[in-house]
């Protein structure tokens, strides 16, 4: 009986303040969409760094049969010669560590990194160069390695990976932090709007609240319908944000971007399913806390 009465009060409150409830839904939806976007951007940055940024500072690519190198494809002697140069007294003081990756290892890594990407179907093992991945003690001294090895026989190119990856990650981080900032402001607006909605709802039902107090209803019994109202509005906004995030990843990221930018392995639904519960929890917890605070303050007045 008490349970049915609570839900009856919740329904009355939602109907009486429908416009405010819709506002709460929209603000929660927009703010949590920004939160989800920011989280996915960070996951994307982390995924890219795992494969590119954290592996090497400088890549020494050896010639393959498909390259137009004057010395021809790199041989075992070429690999040994480059290794000796890296271990030489001239270069070893600048190098923290390095490792060699043959064509088979490179091809397997490429297939794993770009699994599900169409570009993986057009790449063969002979197209993947043998590579020395070098970590420098000081990334700013990569020019020493580049100048020393660029003219060596069998070396196709020496590429400083960080020179352009830093710019890409800086842009992505800036976009992610911007989304987080906007999301934080929108979440504050959502919390304030929920609190205002609950107080207006309580004010419009002040006679009912007075009657419930006279018949001995506890504060918890009076507060519960208002808290549920806030939670329902925020839950609807959270679900809408989750749907938009899921559709965006499925159709825009995987269906549009991944087909046009095949050199990047974008986040997929696996990451989206990790983000969606976070959005729902954030929406519900913030709504419950805000509504609980607002109605407690009102009952103390």
UniProtKB/TrEMBL annotation:
Task: Name the principal localization, coarsely classed.
Answer: membrane
Under InterPro entries, the record lists: ABC3_permease_C, FtsX, FtsX_actino, FtsX_ECD
> Where does it live in the cell?
Cell membrane
User: How the protein sits in the membrane?
Assistant: Multi-pass membrane protein
FtsX extracellular domain boundaries: 57-158
Q: Which residues form the ABC3 transporter permease C-terminal domain?
A: 182-300
| One family name in Pfam for this protein | FtsX
Keyword annotations from UniProtKB, A to Z: Cell cycle, Cell division, Cell membrane, Membrane, Transmembrane, Transmembrane helix
| Transmembrane domains' residue ranges | 21-45, 174-198, 226-253, 273-295
What is this protein's function?
Part of the ABC transporter FtsEX involved in cellular division.
The family this protein is said to belong to: Belongs to the ABC-4 integral membrane protein family. FtsX subfamily.
State whether it acts alone or in a complex, and with which partners, per the record.
Forms a membrane-associated complex with FtsE.
Report the protein name in the record: Cell division protein FtsX
Q: Which organism is it from?
A: Leifsonia virtsii
What lineage does UniProt assign to this protein's organism?
Bacteria, Bacillati, Actinomycetota, Actinomycetes, Micrococcales
Q: Which gene encodes it?
A: ftsX
